[in-house]
């Protein structure tokens, strides 16, 4: 794919991120539903019993994260997710070449580290007021990669900076 117009703007990337979030939530919900269905079939227990089984919970989490990684890796190695196609954004290495497994792994790991802890702590903070400060700090961690782009000289997100990738404007599809 030939990129002609340069780096994608911050707002374009943010709107693509929000759209991507909706798509990824659907992928994760589908993967979670499959995992819960398998749990019910194998154990005969209701889905509400899943958190009580440490091994089953760990396998469920591993499965959901693996599916999320597979979705991201498949799309990123191809240069575009559905949201990126919609907003005409292409993901490439800093030198313009397609992403390898190293870049995909680093990018995914940074995104997961910054986003994953936020939601559970807000759930706990609703019931334990002393955890609210931790929830707010984790919310700051959630926004760090995107705020980083405002300070970065090339306006890259933190995960793009660390992975050596960049988001460019893709040419219109004909």
Fold and architecture overview:
- 18% of the residues are buried.
- The chain has a two-stranded antiparallel sheet.
- The protein has one domain.
- The chain is globular, with a radius of gyration of 18 Å.
- The protein has helices at residues 10-43, 54-78, 82-86, 101-115, 118-127, 132-151, 158-163, and strands spanning 89-93, 165-169.
- It starts with 9 loop residues before the first helix and ends in a 5-residue tail after the last strand.
- It has 174 residues and is mainly alpha-helical.
- 66% of the residues lie in helices and 6% in strands.
- It contains 7 helices and 2 strands, in the order H-H-H-E-H-H-H-H-E.
Lay out the secondary structure.
Blueprint: H1 10-43, H2 54-78, H3 82-86, E1 89-93, H4 101-115, H5 118-127, H6 132-151, H7 158-163, E2 165-169
Antiparallel strand pairs: 1-2
Short description:
This protein has 174 residues and is mainly alpha-helical. It is built from seven helices and two strands; from the N terminus they run αααβααααβ.
| Low-pLDDT windows of residues | none
Counted beta strands = 2
Major sheet summary line:
2 strands, antiparallel
Mean pLDDT: 88
Q: What is the gyration radius calculated from CA atoms? A: 18 Å
In the sheet with the most strands, the strands line up as 1-2
* Spatial gap, N to C terminus: 13 Å
Helical residue percent band: 55-70%
Total count of domains: 1
User: Helix-strand pattern, N to C?
Assistant: HHHEHHHHE
Beta strand %: 5-15%
Number of helices: 7
Using the alpha-carbon principal axes, give the shape. Answer: globular
Structural class, please?
mainly alpha
Membrane topology: Multi-pass membrane protein
Subcellular location: Cell membrane
Organism: Iodobacter violaceini
Protein name: RDD family protein
């Amino acid at each position: 794919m030939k990129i002609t117009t340069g780096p994608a703007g911050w707002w374009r990337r943010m709107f693509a991120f929000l759209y991507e979030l909706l798509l990824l939530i659907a992928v994760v919900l589908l993967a979670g539903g499959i995992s819960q269905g398998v749990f019910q079939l194998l154990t005969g227990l209701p889905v509400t019993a899943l958190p009580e089984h440490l091994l089953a919970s760990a396998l469920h989490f591993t499965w959901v994260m693996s599916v999320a990684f597979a979705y991201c890796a498949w799309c990123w190695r191809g240069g575009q997710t559905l949201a990126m196609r919609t907003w005409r954004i292409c993901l490439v290495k800093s030198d313009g070449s397609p992403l390898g497994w190293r870049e995909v792994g680093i990018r995914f790991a940074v995104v997961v580290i910054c986003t994953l802890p936020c939601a559970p702590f807000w759930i706990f903070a609703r019931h334990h007021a002393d955890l609210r400060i931790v929830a707010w700090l984790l919310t700051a961690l959630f926004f760090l990669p995107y705020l980083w782009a405002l300070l970065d000289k090339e306006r890259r997100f933190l995960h793009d900076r660390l992975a050596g990738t960049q988001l460019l404007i893709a040419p219109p599809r004909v």
